[in-house]
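[Q] Does anyone have a clean structure-token version of this?
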Amino acid sequence: MRVAIAGAGAVGRSIAGELLENGHEVLLVDKAPTAISVERVPQAEWLLADACEITSLDEAALQRCNVVIAATGDDKVNLVVSLLAKTEYGVPRVVARVNNPKNEWLFNEAWGVDVAVSTPRLMSALVEEAVSVGDLVRLLRFSHGDANLVELTLPDESALAGTQVGDVEWPEDTSLVTIIRGTRVLTPTQEDSLEAGDELLFVAAQAREEQLEDLLSVRREHPAD
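[A] Here you go.
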């Protein structure tokens, strides 16, 4: 997979390193000469250019990219890069960094953004995830389909503890994608049972989040003494 990253700062270089380790082809683009640090990510391609200019993106051969990541520290730049990548070059997947949470509402399909990643929001979500049991935590927003990646840790008293995945009537527009159980990461099957303490990751429509939280958090009925 070929990935172009606009912004060769600490964030862009970190993303590039991870992608290269996973066997992907990476191009880093930045207009600041001081940001071109080939020795830091020597396996990547480097381009000194303004990612907001069509001529630069032509030179980067953006039409050959499977993914473009707008990772600069400027939200305006990230929006322009995203829009150009999607509308001018038809890049299938565009991921954009949101620096200021107040601008998050702009990072949507209208600007060519498939996935918007807000670092402040993600950090706060991870804090919530670490301390919350039985509460739905939104980790990531997908622009297409108005869907989110959400997490909930199944509480001890959940009525679904011990229930097989296939026996649960999940809300519409909701998909259980991963069960994290201790140190194990499970791809759920219909026969897998849910256990108290499981971290459940879903892709769910925003309109279904409250219904999903209610389903997972409902408590068992204890027999009367």
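[Q] Thanks! Anything notable?
[A] The first helix runs from residue 10 to 21.
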